[in-house]
Amino acid sequence: MKPQTLPITDWLLAETVRLREEREGRSRDDEAANALARTAPGTLGQRLAARAAALPDADGIRIDIRRLIRLVRNLSLFILILAAVLGILAARASIAQRHVDILLATATLLALPTLMLVLWIVLMLSGRKQGGSGSLTGHLVRRALGWLGPRLLTGEHAVEVTLAGGRALGTGFGRWLLSTLAHTFWSIYLLSALAALTFFFSVAQYDLIWGTTLLTDETVVGLVRTMAAPPAWLGLIPPPEAQWILGGREGDLLPEARALWAQFLMAMLLVYGLLPRLILLVACGLMAGLSGRRLVLDTSLPGYLRLSRTLRDPREQPTEHGQVPAAAPVRRRQRPAKSAGDAVLVGLELENENNDWPPTIPGIPTRNIGHANDRAGKASILAALEALTEPPPVLLVCCSMLRTPDAAAERFINDTADRAQTIPVLILLEADRLVERGGRLSSRLSDWESLAERVGGEAVAYDIDVPEAAAIARLKQILAGDSR
After folding, report:
1. What is the pLDDT of residues 323-367, one digit of tens each?
2. Is 312 part of any domain?
3. Element (H, E) at 428
4. Is the pTM above the cut of 0.70?
């Protein structure tokens, strides 16, 4: 099924709820929203949005989302006003003296916009996700949003709303939206500079000349002709002649050439500065509009994965089949009455065990027994568990989401839990690698959760690189004997 898109406000609401639950955990009052979401049509992302909209505090979050959007608009307006002021100041600085070096003034006015344009192109082509366009404008927006958001939003979850806004700027929609803002900024900057130059050249007399220390006059003539070719082709200035160009040599300016050199300077600014920005402004605006209609939730995030089974419609049939037994018996296990030491940690066929083993779980001390990747490894782990004098509080079995749970995995987990005389807790790793390979995370997570239920344990999705507070809190609850 093709992922169903969401309006930006619904996307922000669902993201805010996810961030809140990762920080505080899920509320016990959420079951009504879960039940409503299970009957909602569409994909997992659509149901997550329906669940977020049905939560008791959704109205309060929506108020802060509207305030955040208004804040972004006001901030964008401030940045565009700043662009106009900076453009005027740049034009005034480039002709601060009545004798203006035409080549130096041209380079001064075009240097920064051109540098930022090249930087934007490089970042967009390299695919680096820097919260939007990666430009100076995008950086200013993100920094200002991060500082102003929690101070101006008054809701209980203002921090999460601001973080969700930052994540929106990191999506494809955010990249094109900030690119549009960046090109608007530089377009206004250059338009303001052009308007200022037109005013100053109209009310005061300037001598526009050129001089050189290293270059020959012939080299300068060729350079000016090359630069003037596109504006001349567009009809903005007449094709430059060598005599006219040499007439601008310092000390040799003819009075009738002043206006032509002023037109030359403004034509350079228009063709090499403003015109590319206007073209990119229109293109990025169109792309932002298209991508804004394709916003989908990233359901590979552990915060959403943990809800996938809860929100599954019981009438649905699994769409991905592994080698899981259809009618396997369910084991009933209890925590040991007396346990000693830290939780025992074992690994089962992890693909990247050399780099990620053993995983660190903040606040949960563990005892590493080993990693089972073949028959000898499994036998070694079973022998180590058999040698334990007292059962551990829980047995943490690290499993790879890259692999479909099969009968062999189920037998091994049952055997390790029997030897350890405690309940198994499956820590599901490598979800990001499954996404990279195009696997369906929701179905794979459901398969592992079903296996955990059959072996009398529980399953928790865990990200080694970015440990989530909600996953750590759930593991601590299990260690403390809370099976909610």
Report:
1. 444 445 566 777 777 766 788 999 888 876 556 678 888 888 888
2. no
3. strand 424-429
4. no
Total structural domains in the chain? 2
Compute the half-sphere exposure of residue 342: CA atoms within 13 Å on the CB side of its CA: 11
Burial zone of 329 (CB within 10 Å; 0-12 exposed, 13-18 middle, 19+ buried): exposed
Contact 463, 471 (CB under 8 A): yes
Most confident of 17-31, 146-160, 453-467: 453-467
Preceding peptide of 391 cis, ω within 30°: no
Tens digit of each residue's pLDDT (9 = 90 or more) over 431-470:
888 877 777 777 788 888 888 888 888 888 888 877 788 8
Residue 346 φ then ψ, to 5°? -130, 155
Sign of CA dihedral 123, 125, 126, 130: positive
Domain identity same for 280 and 375: no
Token pair for 360? 């660190």
Residue 326, CA distances (Å) to 143, 315, 403, 426, 446 in order:
53, 17, 18, 20, 14
What are the structure tokens assigned to 5, written together? 């898109």
Rg of the chain over Cα atoms, rounded to whole angstroms, equals: 32
Q: Hey, is 335 helix, strand or coil?
A: coil
Residue 288 has pLDDT above 70, yes or no: yes
Distance of CA 45 to the CA centre of its chain: 17
Q: How many CB atoms lie within 10 A of CB 54?
A: 16
CATH number at residue 432: 3.40.50.300
- In whole angstroms, give the CA distance from residue 472 to residue 22: 9
Domain containing 252: what range?
60-292
| Any domain includes 302 | no
Which residues, 6 or more positions from 347, have their beta carbon under 8 angstroms from its beta carbon? 353, 357, 358, 370, 371, 372, 397, 398
Distances (CA, A) of 13 to 58, 158, 335: 7, 12, 39
For 264-312, the DSSP string reads HHHHHHIIIIIHHHHHHHHHHHHHHHHHHTT----TTSHHHHHHHTTT-
Q: What is the pLDDT of residue 318?
A: 47
Helical packing angle, 172-203 and 58-94, nearest 10°: 30
User: Does residue 147 form part of some domain?
Assistant: yes
Last residue of a domain, one of 292, 307, 326: 292
Token output for 274 = 């403003």
Look up residue 169 and give its amino acid.
Answer: L
Query: Quick check: is 297 in a domain?
Result: no
Taking Cα atoms as reference points, which of 310, 297, 474, 318 lies closest to residue 405? 318
pLDDT of residue 60: 87
- Which contiguous run of DSSP H or E holds residue 398? strand 395-400
